[in-house]
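Problem: given the chain below (168 residues), write out its structure.
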Amino acid sequence: MKTNDLNIIHQILITMLLVLKPDQFHNEYIMFSDKTKNNILTGGDFYRIYYSDQYFTSNGLFIAFSLKNVKIERYFNKIKCTFDKVKNRKIISFVKNVEQKLLEIAPSQTKIPTYRIEEQLNQNYIKIFSEDKIDPVNLDSANILLKVSGIWTDESNYGTTFRFFFDN
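Solution.
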């Protein structure tokens, strides 16, 4: 194989993600790494999440879903995606439930859970990480990717480390 061919294969592997749809998520396939020092929170710990079933193991949990009736606008260095609570009730409930399940089975259950995903959803928006220049726009729907990397802890609390992205 030529060097250029290897570079192309490498690029494909880097950009390829194994993404779950909501009906494919099962919390019994969640595993956690051993505790490591949290590089972001001083005095905290971090547990990486793995999703592993009989077919694959992923480093992190990736869930793709769609939000209906959304408004997209720039929000500091992120994008704010405001959504219709009624039209998205089912998927909002599902995403909140995923966070709750992760924190129920997380290694730090002696601490107080912090539901940061739920906090955003209860305010009818999510913050999306994107380098793209986005003009404010209203959309009938937007495809979203939720990436949950792990569980953070500090002296008394714990919660999910996550990001939302546009799923193109």
